[in-house]
């Protein structure tokens, strides 16, 4: 009886030979309108001190992809409102966007502008996923969006 696992949170007290239990369920995270403007850890637990989300609907992190019949078949360009992006590297509507670059080139500023434009001009929803030191930037971004009114109370 052996198990291989990936730690998704603190491993304090975990050691070889300790008894573990199978929950028989995948990692599930809260979804829906009540999660908008919130900050969660990798397990879907709120870390913003704005209350519990345990009563919300949840979905597993691994799900089947949508059927092709449910997807938009005609590609459309997403207008970001940032002229250089729209001209040189346009984004597809409904897709995922990743920004990569060296230190000090303006990735965070661009992300803040994108989220602001998506929220105000298009009435859309943006998700910021931070890894490592980016979580600090995510917190700074959250505070700035709250102050500017992009995130409603």
From TrEMBL:
Main location class: membrane
Residue span(s) of domain ATPase F1/V1/A1 complex alpha/beta subunit nucleotide-binding: 81-152
Keywords, alphabetical: ATP synthesis, ATP-binding, CF(1), Ion transport, Membrane, Nucleotide-binding, Plastid, Translocase, Transport
InterPro entries membership: ATPase_alpha/beta_chains, ATPase_F1/V1/A1_a/bsu_N_sf, ATPase_F1/V1/A1_a/bsu_nucl-bd, P-loop_NTPase
Example GO biological process: proton motive force-driven mitochondrial ATP synthesis
Subcellular location, record wording: Membrane
Pfam family, one: ATP-synt_ab
Domain of life: Eukaryota
GO (cellular component) term, any one: mitochondrion
Listed GO MF terms: ATP binding; proton-transporting ATP synthase activity, rotational mechanism
Family: Belongs to the ATPase alpha/beta chains family.
UniProt cross-references to PANTHER family, sorted A to Z: ATP SYNTHASE (PTHR15184), ATP SYNTHASE SUBUNIT BETA, MITOCHONDRIAL (PTHR15184:SF71)
Protein name stated in the entry: ATP synthase beta subunit
Organism this protein belongs to: Halidrys siliquosa
